[in-house]
């Protein structure tokens, strides 16, 4: 019962609705993404042999028992600093990421040491319980201050402690030469995920040994998905509150607004230059959901009439390319925009309009043409992202009744059309929606995540 109580602290007063039809994309999501200078994967996929190692390792960590046994229960943690403040106690620590022990040649020297802050209330609530939640970082969330002040400290008032884990490639773990949050290779995001899954086991084991509990994991956007992967590999009941995330990272990088931040020409060139991608890796990766589910293409119509739509689930990128031939890469419905009254007031502000005047409010036809031109890279991206991040490829969390997912109806960063529903993958989980886009949900509905 206390675990349920813990969830209510993390996410409350959200109106739940079932979303059957595709919804418009938040205009603010599109504008915000185009303002940012951050680009992703500017150096390509990463070495083909490294991707092969990561794909093989995914099959190990996707099994809860195998993954959990990779990390000794008494894994060494170094306490760096302790300080007592007026409103909390902060303990800072570090340890070597277990993934660096299994893949030493893949983990950058700057990435291999994990840093964290344990933020505890000065007085625990009565009852003998000491709940603690790990907060995973969203895209661009470097260091500890943002999560500590915005997410952790409000929960302290309810007697819930926090562990704030520095993301690989961020903050104290950002490699020299990396600009801001711009991961240089596609393989970096899979290294990031592998590190965080094993590091969460280290920290959860440590918390259990210190007598903390119940335990939980949460995060916003990318952090929400990392929290989901962490929960799937913990062999006991654990509270999970993923916010503004979904069941796979595939649509984030192929259909969402972030897909315009990728150098598809570079990825296509590298994909075609090395036969390993085409002849080996593309045959290993499987696109989990029907690749045409969000479109009304001739292929979809034909397969519907033939009763073969189910056969398009779990399909390789090469098989998709054989099906589509010269047809467009993606025929998902054109972007339409929706914004709340609060967003409308923001966008009608004269200063804001002046600042955004050069920016087109229409969907980027340039990005669509680029993905159509580089369709081999596009479909391989779908396949490799599904293979490494789709929740269907991982164990179901120990107790799905302890899961509440919070999503934005008009999320432009994480499209959900045609993607497996979280409540179908994890029966018993609760999914709730806020009537906003991705960015506006974080700005104006953030209190609903706590």
TrEMBL record:
It holds the Pfam family ABHD18. InterPro entries: AB_hydrolase_fold (IPR029058), ABHD18 (IPR019149). Transmembrane segments: none annotated. It comes from the Eukaryota. Signal peptide: none annotated. PANTHER family: PROTEIN ABHD18. This is Protein ABHD18. It comes from Cryptolaemus montrouzieri.
């Amino acid at each position: 019962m206390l675990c349920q109580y813990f969830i209510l602290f993390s996410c409350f007063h959200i109106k739940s609705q079932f979303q059957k039809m595709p919804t418009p994309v938040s205009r603010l999501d599109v504008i915000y993404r185009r303002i940012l200078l951050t680009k992703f994967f500017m150096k390509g996929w990463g070495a083909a042999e490294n991707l092969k190692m990561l794909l093989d390792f995914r099959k190990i960590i996707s099994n809860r028992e195998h993954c959990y046994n990779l990390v000794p229960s008494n894994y060494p943690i170094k306490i760096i600093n302790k300080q007592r403040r007026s409103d909390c106690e902060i303990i800072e620590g570090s340890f070597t990421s277990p993934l660096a022990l299994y893949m030493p040649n893949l983990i950058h020297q700057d990435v291999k040491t994990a840093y964290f802050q344990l933020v505890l209330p000065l007085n625990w609530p009565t009852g003998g319980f000491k709940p603690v939640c790990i907060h995973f970082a969203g895209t661009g969330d470097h260091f500890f201050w943002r999560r500590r002040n915005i997410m952790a400290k409000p929960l302290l008032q309810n007697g819930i402690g926090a562990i704030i884990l520095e993301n690989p490639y961020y903050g104290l773990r950002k490699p020299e030469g990396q600009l801001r949050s711009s991961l240089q290779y596609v393989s970096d995001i899979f290294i990031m995920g592998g590190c965080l899954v094993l590091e969460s086991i280290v920290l959860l084991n440590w918390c259990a040994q210190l007598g903390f509990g119940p335990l939980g994991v949460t995060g916003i956007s990318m952090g929400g998905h990392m929290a989901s992967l962490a929960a799937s590999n913990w062999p006991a009941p654990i509270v999970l509150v993923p916010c503004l995330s979904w069941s796979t990272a595939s649509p984030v990088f192929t259909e969402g607004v972030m897909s315009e931040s990728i150098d598809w020409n570079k990825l296509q060139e590298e994909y075609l230059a090395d036969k390993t991608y085409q002849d080996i890796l593309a045959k290993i990766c499987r696109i989990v959901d029907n690749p045409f589910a969000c479109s009304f293409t001739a292929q979809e119509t034909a397969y519907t009439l033939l009763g073969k739509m189910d056969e398009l689930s779990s399909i390789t990128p090469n098989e998709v390319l054989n099906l589509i031939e010269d047809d467009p890469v993606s025929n998902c419905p054109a972007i339409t925009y929706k914004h709340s009254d609060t967003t409308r007031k923001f966008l009608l502000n004269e200063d804001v309009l002046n600042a955004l005047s050069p920016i087109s409010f229409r969907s980027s036809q340039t990005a669509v043409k680029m993905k159509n031109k580089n369709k081999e890279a596009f479909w391989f991206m779908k396949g490799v992202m599904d293979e490494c991040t789709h929740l269907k490829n991982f164990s179901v969390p120990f107790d799905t009744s302890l899961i509440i997912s919070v999503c934005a109806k008009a999320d432009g960063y994480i499209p959900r059309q045609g993607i497996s529903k979280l409540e179908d993958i994890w029966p018993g989980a609760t999914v709730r929606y806020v009537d906003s886009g991705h960015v506006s949900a974080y700005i104006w509905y953030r209190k609903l995540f706590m």
